[in-house]
From TrEMBL:
<keyword id="KW-0479">Metal-binding</keyword>
<keyword id="KW-0732">Signal</keyword>
<comment type="similarity">
    <text>Belongs to the peptidase M14 family.</text>
</comment>
<keyword id="KW-0378">Hydrolase</keyword>
<comment type="function">
    <text>Involved in the digestion of the blood meal.</text>
</comment>
<dbReference type="GO" id="GO:0004181">
    <property type="term" value="F:metallocarboxypeptidase activity"/>
</dbReference>
<keyword id="KW-1015">Disulfide bond</keyword>
<dbReference type="InterPro" id="IPR036990">
    <property type="entry name" value="M14A-like_propep"/>
</dbReference>
<feature type="domain" description="Peptidase M14">
    <location>
        <begin position="90"/>
        <end position="380"/>
    </location>
</feature>
<protein>
    <submittedName>
        <fullName>AGAP011435-PA-like protein</fullName>
    </submittedName>
</protein>
<dbReference type="InterPro" id="IPR003146">
    <property type="entry name" value="M14A_act_pep"/>
</dbReference>
<keyword id="KW-0964">Secreted</keyword>
<dbReference type="GO" id="GO:0008270">
    <property type="term" value="F:zinc ion binding"/>
</dbReference>
<keyword id="KW-0482">Metalloprotease</keyword>
<feature type="active site" description="Proton donor/acceptor">
    <location>
        <position position="346"/>
    </location>
</feature>
<keyword id="KW-0862">Zinc</keyword>
<dbReference type="GO" id="GO:0005615">
    <property type="term" value="C:extracellular space"/>
</dbReference>
Length: 386
């Protein structure tokens, strides 16, 4: 059987070409988003596209080299290590994650309560937990895996949740006990399940758009500056914004829930990959009202993040450091709810594995991320934001 090859394209000069491929993939896929000139991109070439890509490679001097001979072997490596016990040496299914949330609710009945923050097209619940040690705390909302294929996101969010309950580190205890945490590991359950059962690199929801095309990009579907750049109106595209704002039940119900959270001071959204810490907005490079303060907090956060394992991150507004992208949850929370501290992470790595980050990097990724979250909250408090 012909395999799906993964080609590495160094120092992209033909960014426009790759972005056109992404808009009309017809079987092509990327292991990380093609967004920057002078970065490496891994492109999945399906068997029926080998001849076509060879021609493109020659015509545009892409200098593509084979990174992985067979995509499936990289995926299999990512699926290794599934244990009976929930932990962070492996990636877990939605069922496992929800089962683990249930055990936390049983183990910590005075602190952890179940929350249902939304519904999905296929009838699942978007579940999470609230962690509250005392009344009257400012609230932090953390959201993972709105893009289905970004598994490291759910793994990081569950790791942080576990630390909030079990860590004896004084800095972790401080943020655990002095904030109310609303933790949603998987904001796109249908898509996440689909990445485990059918198509590993699926990104969107699973709503039927037409006979051939499924899903909208749930991070382009929010009702704030909808379709003002960085989106597609082509239903089969990975960045299809949906036919109208909040067309997806996932984004609509999630937004309704977030609107009800009292004292919401902080919103943290987790993606992969690229090692970026981003502030709103995605539709414009114009700085938002508290841009300078968020950038100052962000710079301190990424400096702290680098200390533990040496991971280098960049900080900036979405449109500046990654690409123009309108209709994101981050922009909606900032633009509509006026939540002061809003950050989106693009977690590891910087292009080697992209969405297929090996499980042996989960714990290090999550540890360094938690270090930086502590800084975000402490610095935000020092600025009077909570």
């Amino acid at each position: 059987m012909a395999s799906f090859r993964v080609l590495s394209i160094e120092r992209i000069e033909q960014l426009e070409l790759l972005q056109l491929i992404e808009q009309s993939p017809d079987g092509y896929a990327f292991l990380s988003d093609p967004v920057h000139v002078n970065t490496t991109v891994k492109l999945v070439v399906p068997p029926h596209k080998v001849a076509e890509f060879a021609e493109l490679n020659e015509r545009f001097s892409l200098k593509a080299e084979v990174a992985f001979e067979n995509l499936q072997t990289v995926i299999d490596r990512q699926l290794k290590g599934r244990r009976e016990v929930f932990g962070w040496t492996a990636y877990h299914t939605l069922e496992d994650i929800y089962g683990w949330l249930d055990t936390l609710i049983e183990q910590y009945p005075n602190v952890v309560s179940p929350i249902v923050v939304g519904q999905t097209y296929e009838g699942r619940q978007i579940r999470g937990v609230k962690v509250s040690y005392k009344a009257g705390n400012p609230a932090v909302f953390t959201e993972g895996t709105i893009h289905a294929r970004e598994w490291i996101s759910a793994a990081t969010v569950t790791f942080v949740l576990n630390e909030l309950l079990t860590s004896v580190d004084p800095a972790v205890r401080n943020i655990a006990e002095n904030y109310d945490w609303y933790v949603v590991p998987v904001a796109n359950p249908d898509g996440y399940v689909y990445t485990h059962t059918t198509t590993r690199l699926w990104r969107k929801t699973r709503s039927q758009q037409n006979v051939l095309c499924f899903g909208a990009d749930p991070n382009r579907n929010w009702d704030y500056k909808f379709n003002q750049g960085g989106t597609s109106t082509i239903p089969c595209s990975d960045t299809f914004s949906g036919p109208y704002p909040f067309s997806e039940i996932e984004t609509r119900t999630l937004s309704e829930y977030i609107s009800t959270i009292p004292n919401l001071s902080t919103y943290l959204d987790f993606h992969s990959s690229g090692q970026l810490l981003m502030v709103p907005y995605g539709h414009t490079r114009e700085p938002l009202d508290n841009y300078n303060e968020l950038m100052e907090i962000g710079r301190k956060a990424i400096a702290k993040l680098q200390e533990r394992h040496g991971s280098v991150y960049q900080v900036g507004n979405i449109a500046e450091i990654i690409y123009v992208a309108s209709g994101s949850s981050l922009d909606w929370v900032k633009g509509t709810l006026k939540t002061p501290l809003t950050f989106a992470y693009e977690l590891r790595d910087r292009g080697e594995y992209g969405f297929l980050l090996p499980p042996d990097q989960i714990i290090a990724t999550a540890e360094e991320t938690l270090d930086s979250i502590i800084v975000i909250l402490e610095e935000g408090k020092a600025m009077g934001y909570h």
